Amino acid sequence: MKFSVHVEVRGLPGIADPEGRTIERALPALGFSGVSSVRVGKVIAFDLEAADEGAARVAAEEMCARLLSNPVIQRAEVSIHSS
Q1: Which one of 3.90.550.50, 3.40.50.2000, 3.30.450.20, 3.30.1280.10 gives the CATH number of domain 2-82?
Q2: By Cβ atoms counted within 10 A, which residue in 5, 30, 39, 43 is the most buried?
């Protein structure tokens, strides 16, 4: 079966996010007030062939642990949808 996989990677709480801080400081200059705690992450989307949803999830989580994220400083959330 073919599955659509979305992985959202974000920094763990307490880990510095310089890109988020830069955005947070720039927004008031652009007229946007009241914004705080900006965090920047990334989304990785791909299709995956697997026997079932469980196998797809195991494969995607292994990809996260080995390549797509750094588990020491990041959290990866995997969403699986059948195509």
Answers
A1: 3.30.1280.10
A2: 5
